[in-house]
Amino acid sequence: MKNIITIVVRLTLSCLLAASVMGICFIFTSNAKKHNEHVQEQRVIYELLGYKGGAKIPDSMALHEVYRYVITGGDKQSIGYLVPQGHGKDKGFLFVNIDLTGGFLASKNVALSESEALDPKIRDKAFEQAAGPGHTVKFADQTIVVTDSGARIAYLLGGKFQGFKTFINVMLAVDPGFAILGLEVLEHEEDPGLGAEIDQDYFKNQFKGKPFEALKAIDVVKAPIPSDYLQALNGKVSEEDIMKFREQYKGKDVYALTGATISSKAVTEGVKGIVTKFGYRLNVLDKILKEQQLAVSF
Amino acid sequence: MANDKSSLQLITRGILSENPIFKLALSMCPAVGISTTVMNGFMLGVAVLFVQVFSSVTISIFKNVIHPRIRIPTYTLTIATWVTVIDLVLAAYLPEAYAKMGIFVKLIVAFAIITMRLEMFACKEPVKDSFWDGMGMGLGFMVGMMAIGFVRELLGSGAILGYDVLGFKPLLFFILPSAGFFVVGLMMAFFNWIEVYYKRSKGLK
Q1: Is B93 domain-assigned?
Q2: pLDDT of residue A89
Q3: Cα–Cα dist B67/B64, whole Å
Q4: Is residue B24 predicted with pLDDT exceeding 70?
Q5: Which of A52, A270, B82, B165 could form a disulfide with A161 if both were Cys (CB 3.0 to 4.6 A apart)?
Q6: Does B162 touch chain A if contact means CB atoms closer than 8 Å?
Q7: B85 and A224 in contact by Cβ < 8 A?
Q8: By CA distance, what is B102's nearest residue in A?
Q9: Measured between beta carbons, which residues in chain B are less than 8 angstroms from residue A40?
């Protein structure tokens, strides 16, 4: 009995000690980590849009963040959006509530500045107020609509899905017709040398240029990548040839990584899911915005 | 129990006579799974080196207060703490390195070699010796991983450190995990053969 007590007490103390070391470390590093993630995200956004390594971003280009929430009230669920009404201090956001069949429920102005919306806590609170009492709200995802002189040129979609071990966090850029402009893997814990190859160019670039129609039915093939296509994926041939290969392979399936079929399949299915769902949702949102004649910034 | 080895001897022991991969045959899962290129081997080696040294020193400092019945959970806890701390610090202050090292660091928690060194060495020996033993084992692991990675990268993708040296790919098989077993086994045999040969030529038994 005495032994058991000693063991329990000592093990508890060791756990507490370890927990406090990790906790203190977390407190000291979390801000810097968040900052790094934000910087990386910004870099990835511009790289996906084709502005690599500090290329000048035209002033006519603007990013509009759209936030999506799931609203639950009683036994009913609906989808709520926070859509920016324009850039500037007093423009604020528009709250749009849509039921699950795509019917319009309500809309109202939300006094929330763009910088305030970046903080999840403030945003969630503002959204909760807009949704009204008796509703629980849950943040689902955010999308960035990119416009150039008022015309939409791309959408940036973030997404998370199950990989071989844990979640794979990606960011996608699609054009207004939902064809893929680029894919970037932000975070993953796949096995080095096998599944971790998903962040290599020759895998990611296979998605580039795939049209929406091809994406809906995309799958992976277990075969080695033809060597001339591989050269093109790695960017070792001229821009014209890359385009030629992209055209040739745009309707084809994705070549799986050697020894990492599960990871390859996870990414392919994940990308497919993100884009097809987004395509559906955006059409619904656009229809409602048009029907109700709601003015938004994009 | 004091040991009579100098710090240099402790290091060379980890690399040569008690190499974690070729002699102790520990942590074979990563050796087989990850050592597909020299760079991967090096990255994992660096990550293991740091965690091994920090854990060895920690256990050596606290060796007198660790109850013998709960020593294994304590080792696991120590390793997990150091892995988390290194992961957080890298992510916060060295984002460039973290982008490359991140996935390797998180793999380490369950490595046999680290737990085994804590059990066999650090829980009995003074802090200074534990430090050098950790260094030796970490370096030994790194050298072993890089050696396997060298063979597999050369034969599997015809390259060294990502640079194409052969111009063709001899055998794709060597990149696959199953080939890891063959490479590890053959290299183990090779190093043992060298050792036997060396001892014979010196007239040792």
Answers
A1: yes
A2: 55
A3: 8
A4: yes
A5: A270
A6: no
A7: no
A8: A189
A9: 95
Q: Is the CB of residue B32 less than 8 Å away from at least one CB of chain A?
A: no
Coil, helix or strand for A130? Answer: helix
Cα distances (Å, whole numbers) of residue A285 to A6, A82, A158, A208, B187:
62, 11, 18, 26, 62
Domain for residue B61, yes or no? yes
Among B34, B36, B21, residue whose Cα is nearest residue B192: B21
Burial label for A238, CB within 10 Å (0-12, 13-18, 19+), is: exposed
Taking the CA of residue A95 as centre, how many other CA atoms within 13 Å lie in the half-sphere pointing to its CB?
A: 24
Q: Where are the domains of chain A?
A: 1-57, 61-146, 153-281
pLDDT for A90 = 61
Mean pLDDT per 10-residue interval, chain A, length 298 residues: 87 92 93 87 85 76 87 85 74 84 84 80 86 84 86 89 90 90 88 82 88 87 85 83 84 85 92 91 87 78
**Residues spanned by the domain of B22:** 8-201
Number of A–B residue contacts, CB under 8 Å: 84
Query: Does position B1 have pLDDT exceeding 60, yes or no?
Result: no
> What are the residues facing A64 on neighbouring strands?
A145
> Can you tell me whether residue B186 is helix, strand or coil?
helix
Closest-CA residue of A relative to B95 is A36
pLDDT (0 to 100) of residue A87: 66
Query: Closest Cα of chain A to B171: distance in Å?
Result: 13
Contacts of A224 in chain B (CB under 8 A): 172
Q: What is the pLDDT of residues B43-77, one digit of tens each?
A: 889 889 999 999 999 999 988 888 888 888 899 99
Instruction: Supply the angle between the helices A2-48 and B95-107 in degrees, to the nearest 10.
Output: 140
- Residue A18 has what pLDDT? 92
* Average pLDDT of the segment spanning B157-176: 77
Is B55 touching A (CB cutoff 8 A)?
A: no
Q: Is residue B3 part of a domain?
A: no
What is the enclosing helix (H) or strand (E) of A105? strand A104-110
Contact between B85 and A21 (Cβ < 8 Å): yes
**What's the complex ipTM?**
0.76
Residue B133 lies in a domain: yes
A70: Cβ contacts below 8 Å, ≥ 6 apart: A77, A78, A79, A80, A137, A138, A140
Q: What is the pLDDT of residue A12?
A: 92
Residue B120 per-residue DSSP state? I
Sheet holding A151-162, edge to edge: A104-110, A93-99, A76-84, A61-73, A136-148, A151-162, A167-174, A180-187
- Which pLDDT value is given to residue A16? 94
